[in-house]
Every structure is written in C-alpha cells, then in structure tokens.
Amino acid sequence: MTPKEVIQKVQQDLFTMQDLKYRDFHAKLMPTVDKDSVIGVRVPMLRAYAKKFGKTEEAKQFLEILPHQYYEENNLHGLLIDQMKDYELCIEELIRFLPYINNWATCDILSVKAVKGHLDSYIKNIYQWLESDYTYTIRFGINMLMRYYLEEEFKIEYPEKVAAIRSEEYYVNMVRAWYFATALAKKYDQVLPFLEEQKMDVWTHNKTIQKAIESYRITLEQKEYLRTLKIK
User: Fold this and answer.
1) What one-character-per-residue DSSP string does 37-51 give?
2) How far is CA 133 from CA 3, 38, 79, 139, 140, in A?
3) Which of 50, 128, 140, 175 could covalently link to 79 via disulfide, CB atoms 3.0 to 4.6 Å apart?
C-alpha cells in the first residue's frame, strides 16, 4: 500500500468506531484541539485497534507519516510507539512525534514501557524535553519523571528540575502540580521543603497543595500541615 492508501484505510477504520456523543463530550475537554479533527473513538477501542494494527506492515508506514489530520490518528501513533520493544527505535520515534502533540490527552496516553530497562540513559532525553519550546514535550518529560523516577530511581535533582521550570502554559504548570502532589505521596519528607521554601511560582505552589489535599495517599495530618503552607 502507498502511504496515502494506508492513511485512508486507517481513517476509514477509525470512523467505523465513531461515537458522536463521546466526541462532543471529549472535545470539550481539549480546548486546544479543533472539534472537527476529533472523530470520537473511545480509548479502549482505540487501544484494541492499535494492538491489532501494530502487527501489520502498514503500521510502520503509518509511523512515517506526520503530521496527522485527526486527533485519534495522533493517539494511534502514540499507542504504536508504546508497543515498541526496541529502546533505540522507541526513542527515535518519540523524538520525531513529540513536536506534533497538540493536547494533554495525546500527551498523557504515552507510557513507553520500553524505557524501563534504560532509565539511566533515558533521563538525558527527559532533561532535553524539559527545556523544550513545545508545551506538550515539556509535559511529556514531567510525566515520565512522575511515572518512572519517583520510586527507587528517585533523586532530589528531579523535583529541582521541575520546580525550576517557569512557564505561562496551563498544561505545563498543571502537570508540575500533579508531579509534586504525587511526589509528596511517595517522597513526602524529601519533597516537602519545595513547598516550605516556596521554590515554585504561586499558582503551581497552591495547585500542588490543592491536589495533595485531594489525594487519598496523603495522611490527614499531612493535609492539615499542607494547608498552612498555602500562599495567600
């Protein structure tokens, strides 16, 4: 099949899974995305399709074609990268794809499990992404720190990097707050000083406290103390 035929086939398949009510609902959650570019495919259905499609030769051709027309095509692209077991190839495809992500949902669908055995080298890519000019590349980098570097791999320099980010972008600062709320749940004593010493901008600082207080993984005593750290 030609690249054009592959795209036509994928789009045809996606439209057979269309749910217009879901499209209308989901499009409202993504103000950065043109509603006309959203087909309306529920994520479980898209995951099942990606698993099947990923075994075909056409999937390799699909990955070579950027940018995509539809939101679901971007999500499919991300899910195909997620399936990759070759670490080097996975990184190559991530680097190609990240600049084309234009919304939080596509960004957050990526888990890239192939990096698990390469976290020492992967952190170098993450540091580059944290310094990107692209909103969702930065967000992806923070997502990766949250997913893979808050357990045994944790180093205090990681929250230091996230705290030092200064952005006007809502979707960057929201994930920064999400990162710190999660870090408080897992590394409370090490991360608490970032709030006590007010190392972040006011909005992210206060949003971190809000999200931490909403978390079931934070104790009542910790929540009471966190409330006293809110910047008025």
Assistant:
1) G-----HHHHHHHHH
2) 30, 25, 24, 11, 12
3) 50
